[in-house]
Amino acid sequence: MFYIYFYICECTCFRGHTVTSCFLISVSEPAGAIRAIDKHSVHQICSGQVVLTLATAVKELVENSVDAGATSIDVKLKECGVELVEVSDNGKGVEEANFEGLTLKHHTSKIRDFSDLIHVETFGFRGEALSSLCALSDLSVVTCHESSQVGTKLVFDHKGHLVQKSPHPRQQGTTVSLQQLFSTLPVRHKEFQRNIKKEYAKMLHILQSYCIISVGVRITCSNQNGQGKRTTVLCTSGSQSMRENIGAIFGPKQVGAIIFVCTSYLHNTAYHQTKVNYYMFKDMVIIGQFNLGFIITKLNSDIFMIDQHATDEKYNFEMLQQHTVLQGQKLIAPQKLHLTAVSENVLMENIEIFRKNGFEFLIDEDAQVMERVKLVSLPTSKNWTFGPADIEELIFMLSDSPGIMCRPSRVRQMFASRACRKSVMIGTALNVSEMKKLVVHMGEIEQPWNCPHGRPTMRHLANLDVISQD
């Protein structure tokens, strides 16, 4: 019996990001000829599997390798998966009698009818993964069964039919190559290319989970961009210890500190967020100032009260967020960061965002993975100091939204403090033009509803039509 620990459950953490957790199941090494599932059972099995992302494609191929009893799995990509996805293993290989049915829909060696589902101990059983991948890419297989002396290259068309078979040198195992993933769906293909950094990051996170729970299986992942050097981004040693796998992925110092935190929070949607969109602020009529702290406005039949300090504070905060480039302080000597391979890759892919936040790095692409990046400069600002924890937070955010400008929470706190000091204070008298300026500013930012500290910027007071009816 070959044991593997895996079940994916996704939930939302307190920052709104997806967190993947792993649970324990066992998997045996199946055997048997590939044959069609009977039509009745096909309809009973849950809905067909559809490959929607790069992560799903890699996941399916890696699971096939694990199901084949592989102890070594090598994932290779070109252009982060746009040009090529290739997964090689040293599993049992595919018998020649099974070549024709390998990529046909609902053909599998795992089950024969619906009752067999009770005894399924493998990742795959539907017989749809390779069929779906054939329909979405140019798929070829090089395999050598444990009973064969020489390997065979198999080329399939988009319907999963075998169109070419030729001898090919290979040791025991199987290599599946996907060229031009999603090329048969032009719109999806363009979207895939446009969002490739995000697709690539999500794929690495999924693969990271397999690296951790696949005890006794060596998994590596590498990528090559253009004619550049192939870079290893993930690697485990095939240890029988999950603890050692965690160390290989996250670094030895992080083994005892891996904690997944899942929580949810309630969010109250205020009246104005559903009734007022930010394009309408310029149409608000200024009625006057109340108690030297609130602006009373009218929009059609609705009366609003706007907190003059909170709204100016939010506008100034957003301007600081968008336009401030923090200055850095050089370190005496470059500092090692002890990043995981995935985190290191996220940092290198988003280096400009780190620079805008005042972090400078020394990059050595020829160095060993997890040692390619050294910190050489930290942002400074009077009483505020920053360090590796802020870098880790940025990496966490960018892994979910690569290429999107963001700030560590402590930088946001600093900006909130600055915005508060420079904003119009409660107790300050304002003329109509000054009040109008503050209201119009609200329409120039995407989320004007709360100040940086969470206080509402405006309240709906009344609807004149309702009052007149009463």
Tell me the distance between the termini: 77 Å
CATH fold-level topology of the largest domain: Heat Shock Protein 90
Biggest β-sheet, characterized?
8 strands, mixed
CATH superfamily heading of the largest domain? Histidine kinase-like ATPase, C-terminal domain
β content, as a range? 25-35%
Kindly report the oligomeric state of this protein. single chain
Mean pLDDT, nearest integer?
79
Keywords: DNA damage
Pfam families: HATPase_c_3, MutL_C
GO cellular component, one term: MutLalpha complex
Family: Belongs to the DNA mismatch repair MutL/HexB family.
3D structure, described in words:
The chain is built from 14 helices and 22 strands. Mean pLDDT is 79; it is low at 1-31, 39-49, 110-126 and 259-275. It starts with a strand and ends with a helix. It folds into two domains: 3-257, Heat Shock Protein 90; 273-396 and 403-470, MutL, C-terminal domain, dimerisation subdomain (formyl-coa transferase, domain 3), CATH 3.30.1540.20. Strand 16 and strand 17 form a beta hairpin. The protein is α+β, with helices and mostly antiparallel strands and 470 residues long. It has an eight-stranded mixed beta sheet. A four-stranded antiparallel beta sheet has the order 15-16-17-22. Strands 18, 19, 20 and 21 form a four-stranded antiparallel beta sheet that branches.
